Amino acid sequence: MAIVKMKKLRVVAMAASREELLRGLQHLGCVEISEPEHITAADPAWAALVRRETSDLSATRSRITDVNTALAAIKRYGDVKDGMFVPRNAVSEEKFLSESAVEPAREITDQVCQALKDLSRLQGEENRLASRQAGLRPWASLDMPLEMTGTAHTLIRMGVFPGGTDVGAVRTALGAADAAAEVYEISADKQQVYCLLICHRAEEETVTELLRPFSFSAVSFQGSTGTAAENLAALDQELTQNRQAQEATVAQITQSAQARDALVLYADRLSAEAAKESGRERLLTDGTIVFFEGWAPAERIAQVEVLLEHLGCAWEAEDPTEEEYPQVPVQLKNNWFTRPLNMVTEMYSLPAYDGVDPNPLMAPFFIFFYGFMMADMGYGLLMMLISFIIMKKARPNGPTMRYMIPLLGLCGVSTFIMGAITGGFFGDLLPQLAMMLDPNTSFTAMPALFSPLDDALAVLIGSLGIGLAQIFTGMAVSMYRQIKRGEIVAALCNEGAWYLVFILVGVGAVTDMMSYALIAALVVIVLTQGYGHKGIVGKIMGIGGSLYNNITGYFSDILSYSRLMALMLAGAVIAQVFNTLGGITGNVVTFFLISAIGNALNFALNLLGCYVHDMRLQCLEFFGRFYSDGGKPFRPLAMETKYVDIHQ
User: Fold this and answer.
1) Which pLDDT value is given to residue 641?
2) Is residue 42's pLDDT more than 60?
3) Cross-strand partners of 333
4) What's the average model confidence in pLDDT over 272-297?
5) What is the pLDDT of residues 458-501, one digit of tens each?
6) CB 376 within 8 A of CB 17
7) Alpha-carbon distance 236 to 350, whole Å?
8) How distant, in Å, are the alpha carbons of 54, 283, 288, 291, 525 from that of 277?
9) Are strands 6-14 and 314-318 parallel, antiparallel or unpaired?
10) Other CB atoms within 10 A of residue 369 CB
């Protein structure tokens, strides 16, 4: 339960064995290939090795995009319902790396991608045909070829007026001007009035000017022959054929759903190939040898040594220097109890390589605080059940779910225990149900050591007390780190002095000698808080600043833990209100319905709210005492998978 010690690797291998070397490192999954920062073309000793290895990373990523597109299409058109948590199939490493399944999966991927392109083309063509159909439909009753534009002496124009235009007024205007023209209304809708204009060619300009105030706009159908009705019939036939082709294409994609298992295996295989090609790009070569630097856990160097010796590599492994600590990747080593807290640590920031793994220190507090705020046996049972089912069925291994689901189960245990202590089971569901069934029942409350509603002051004091315990733990870790660095006096004058102040104030409060305790505490502060400041004025300023900053800081931090009481009370009250509303109906069915809805909302709200407030206490009040963040995550060359689990 600590930060894993790393070794810095330098490896020289024959270029001919690079593929076997990368495969071996990926199989081990414990070596991160890093970019050598100190090697430049200006350095004659390394000039020949500045050239990077070429790789197929771009092509591999393109294939990953294709297979993911194919999987998305199969899920959409093949009616594949994965659900929220998809079980991961277990495959052997031999099958995972087998080339026999790659080519069929690639062919299916290409077929699905081509089918998607065809489907997109057909859908575009359908839209075009539908648009033409919509444009022709208002002219369906016009028994005249669309290509006809007039005769030797007459001009025929199809056109539209804005919706609501009075065609009679248009005719009147033409008649008043004694124009040799006539307008016939073909159809109309809310947007436009569709008309046919016939006029003498000699008066085309005059008629155009007369129609301008009515916003007449000519319409033409380039390339169309025959009547509108004939064209609509042809378009109907084309649309039918288009939709049949779309159905056939969708059926082809749907049929590919049978090969989904092969495609997901192929997708994970490509991801592994991309990781390997990414590692290849970090290798330096002169064509004969390859060189790389990297990091590996000290506890696994023996395994790395076996591989490198087998391939005849020249290599060395050494401990990083203090100057290299900021570049050393960080890996946390935890057990089943503390590992789920990686979710909190990674969301905040990994510790620095020379820092402290916060998970073992944080786990008891985080899990207890969560249960303290939730405090309900029913909610705790739900959390444990959800965690068990998901872990059993889906075996999540994603970057978040593999930590969140076990953490949910651990917090569920804490919630159940605190619920048993406070007598909460979906609020006061059982007593309310008992009173509804028998108004004279003596069962009015669950057995409890204390009640959040009746003993609110005790809950508040308890919240502040456990908060003080966590703050003391953080101060102790800070003292330990300072002493370990040889800063013994600083540790004693900072956290050590305030430890003593708290002890003196506590003893004074218990023994009713607060005045003497405060005097002693003041003496301790005067003697210690000037440490590190020069001159009398500097020491006085240091003492004054320390008094203000620490008193206000500790007070606000401890008071922040009152949120534990607030959420416990809020959850209990909301559950009780909904149970009471259900009990008012006097009907068991409606009681359970109202109670179930209310408790579901309360459960969902507290599930998120307790996590947010718990995380805030850890990241601000606790981590602020000792935590050094900024660590770089350890990302070894490995076979990271999304859909399958690989076993040896």
Assistant:
1) 87
2) no
3) 2
4) 90
5) 999 999 999 999 999 999 998 998 898 888 887 888 888 778 88
6) no
7) 64
8) 9, 10, 19, 15, 60
9) antiparallel
10) 27
Residue 205 is encoded by which pair of tokens? 């300009």
Asked whether the predicted pLDDT for residue 82 surpasses 70, the reply is no
Q: Per-residue confidence at 562, pLDDT binned at 50, 70, 90?
A: very high
Rg (CA), the chain: 39
370 touches 610 (CB < 8 A): yes
Q: Which position has the token pair 């020379």?
A: 354
Give me the pLDDT at residue 80, please.
72
Displacement of CA 1 from its chain's centroid (Å) = 27
Check residue 403 and give left, alpha or beta (phi > 0: left; psi -120 to 50: alpha): alpha
For residue 401, which phi and psi values (nearest 5 degrees)? -65, -30
Q: Say whether 145 sits in a helix, a strand or coil.
A: coil
* Predicted model pTM: 0.81
pLDDT tens track for 119-166:
999 999 999 999 999 999 999 999 999 989 889 889 999 999 999 999
Torsion of CA 514, 517, 519, 523, to 10 degrees: -160
- Cβ atoms within 10 Å of 86's Cβ, excluding its own: 15
| Residue 127 to residue 493: CA distance in whole angstroms | 78
The secondary structure of residue 283, as a DSSP letter, is: -
What pLDDT band is residue 586 in, cutting at 50, 70 and 90?
confident
**Alpha-carbon distance 30 to 635, whole Å?**
8
Number of C-beta neighbours around residue 39 at 10 A:
16
| Residue 17 DSSP one-character state | G
Cβ pair 447, 423 in contact under 8 A: yes
Three-state SS for 318?
strand
Residue 597 near residue 578 (C-beta atoms within 8 A): yes
595, two tokens: 């109670």
Q: What is the pLDDT of residue 532?
A: 63
| Residue range 184-203: mean pLDDT, rounded | 93
> How many angstroms separate the Cα of 548 from the Cα of each of 414, 515, 556, 626?
37, 20, 12, 20
To which residue do tokens 């104030």 refer?
Answer: 505
DSSP 194: E
474 vs 620: CA distance, rounded Å: 11
**For residue 222, what are its two tokens?**
């380039």
Instruction: Identify whether the C-beta of residue 338 lies closer than 8 Å to the C-beta of residue 618.
Output: no
Q: Which two tokens stand for residue 312?
A: 């005849």
- DSSP letter at 38 equals S
């008309």: which residue's tokens?
A: 195
3 state SS for 57-72: HHHHHHHHHHHHHHHH
Spatial distance between the Cα atoms of 344 and 629, rounded to a whole number of angstroms: 13
* Mean pLDDT for the stretch of residues 273-293: 88
